[in-house]
Amino acid sequence: MDYDYIVCGAGTSGSVVAGRLAASHTGRVLLIEAGGSDQSPLISDPNAWPMTLGTSLDWGFMTDASSDLNGRSIPYSMGKVLGGGSSINVSTWSRGHRSDWDGFSAAAQDKRWSYEAVLELYRTKIEDWQGQPDPRYRGVGGAVHVQQAPSPSAFTESLLSSASDAGLARYPNANGAMMEGTGGAALVDEIVQDGKRKSIFQSYVAPLVSSDNLRVLTDTKLLKILFEKNRAVGVLLESNGQVIAVKARREIVLSAGAINTPRILLQSGIGDPQALRKLGIDVVQALPAVGENLHDHVAFGFIWEKTQEAMPFVPRSESACFWRTDANLDAPNMYTYAIQGAFASPEILKTTNLPENTWSMFVGMRPRSRGRVYLRAADESAPVGIDSGYLRDPKDLDDLRSGLEIARQIGHGSALKRFTVGEAMTVENTRAGQDQFFRDSLVTFWHQCGTAAVGTDEASVVDGSLRVHGIEGLRIADASVLPQVTVGNTMAPCVVIGEQAAGFILSE
């Protein structure tokens, strides 16, 4: 059967696109997902997110071993389930900084992506804010239930006080005004309702699954996009051991994430022509930027010993602290969450003699370094190549050292004395010692992006309407279009991307 619209990937952005298109009743919509159902207690319980990693709910990508990381490979977990990352992440709702959206707008040369335009989207279409009314920044009646972390623990309040003592102003919530400045601290916002996760799939698609014009296929792998000359006309799918071709009368939207989206483009003949020909893939469109510009918030865990007085708290962070390491920056480039237990790379955990009771700062940084996604072979079953690029730019180590200094200042603050004995890991206070620590400890913050970036030059893949350059009937809607990773988690920005994609399609 043919469809008017085919949305490839039921993750955060894809769920928004499919939901909005189906709700418009302008045509038949097919939403395909490689993973399975989201009906699992590991998903509905927002505190169970660590137990989803490495399971069938996770794509389980691995980066190439890197000499910049002392030969380590990094696990790249990504949601392989209805809802994608919004079904297995920490539920945190972080909308992005003013500079993120104005930067996107500048790259796209399109004012529809400006901070004020995106803020209007959050207010009028996206958010159903449960906190104190704030008509300048927050919306009500939108698709996504957003609340502030409820009943924060005494530990969380003490950590926020310590952050204030370290110079990070306290804000009423983690979005709004704080995302217009250079730093601050606040309770997090989250997509949790009545103690249960409410993923973006549940918010946008689940209410429509019985609609006659929407079909959702799970456990269905997208092999490649089909073309007639320079127009995308269908997709090749594998389901239940069968390979089938499905045609799209109007548009195909690729929402497979920052690893799979470039993989599918490359396997379909869109990418660097020299590399494609070397693999025996026919070139449909020469776009050398496909798969380039891969980056992510690089992260490290810093573990502290808890006092006997410190009561347990939820394993997802209730607070967020943002700061910058350079006075010339117009936005924070560092942030940290607080997580119960020891959270660090496997290499650090193996070599550190930890006390019984611990808590961790999980510190993230916006990097300068860039990597890439590439094909190892033309065969769709071959593992994709992922060069993380971590620490390729030596200035990233400078920022990490500065970021560690602020994190330590917060952790050693007087407000946390009743909860914290001290540092539970040994990191030398020398440049060489700290650099060694970072090479052993850096992991992903699960915010991969940039591999099909928006723009108007040869370093881009899509235009401001998210159409693939030189191709008709094909758009990309996921974190791969972000030219730079946003401040904070990327789930909310991916909702914006989905809303924009659907809006562009329906308005044309």
Key traits:
508 residues, alpha+beta
Helices, strands, pairings?
Blueprint: E1 3-8, H1 12-24, E2 29-32, H2 41-44, E3 61-62, E4 75-76, H3 85-88, H4 98-108, H5 115-126, E5 127-129, E6 144-148, H6 154-165, E7 184-187, E8 189-190, E9 192-193, E10 196-197, H7 200-204, E11 214-217, E12 220-228, E13 231-239, E14 242-254, H8 257-267, E15 270-271, H9 273-278, E16 285-286, E17 292-294, E18 298-306, E19 319-323, E20 334-340, H10 346-351, E21 358-365, E22 371-374, E23 385-387, H11 395-411, E24 420-423, H12 431-441, E25 443-444, E26 474-476, H13 491-507
Parallel strand pairs: 1-2, 1-14, 2-11, 5-6, 14-26, 15-16
Antiparallel strand pairs: 3-4, 6-8, 7-19, 9-10, 12-13, 13-14, 17-22, 18-21, 18-24, 18-25, 19-20, 20-21, 22-23
Helix pairs in contact: 1-13
Q: Could you explain the architecture of this structure?
A:
The protein is of the alpha+beta class and 508 residues long. The strands form seven sheets. Strands 1, 2, 11, 12, 13, 14 and 26 form a seven-stranded mixed beta sheet that branches. Strands 7, 18, 19, 20, 21, 24 and 25 form a seven-stranded antiparallel beta sheet that branches. The chain has helices at residues 12-24, 41-44, 85-88, 98-108, 115-126, 154-165, 200-204, 257-267, 273-278, 346-351, 395-411, 431-441, 491-507, and strands spanning 3-8, 29-32, 61-62, 75-76, 127-129, 144-148, 184-187, 189-190, 192-193, 196-197, 214-217, 220-228, 231-239, 242-254, 270-271, 285-286, 292-294, 298-306, 319-323, 334-340, 358-365, 371-374, 385-387, 420-423, 443-444, 474-476. β12 (220-228) and β13 form a beta hairpin. The two termini are 24 Å apart. The protein is globular. The chain has 13 helices and 26 strands. The chain folds into two domains: 3-46 and 78-124 and 199-294 and 449-507, FAD/NAD(P)-binding domain, CATH 3.50.50.60; 150-187 and 298-365 and 391-441, Cholesterol Oxidase, domain 2 (2-Layer Sandwich). Residues 79-102, 257-271 form the Glucose-methanol-choline oxidoreductase N-terminal domain. Pfam families: GMC_oxred_C, GMC_oxred_N. This is GMC family oxidoreductase N-terminal domain-containing protein. FAD binds at residues 12-13, 81, 446-447. Belongs to the GMC oxidoreductase family.
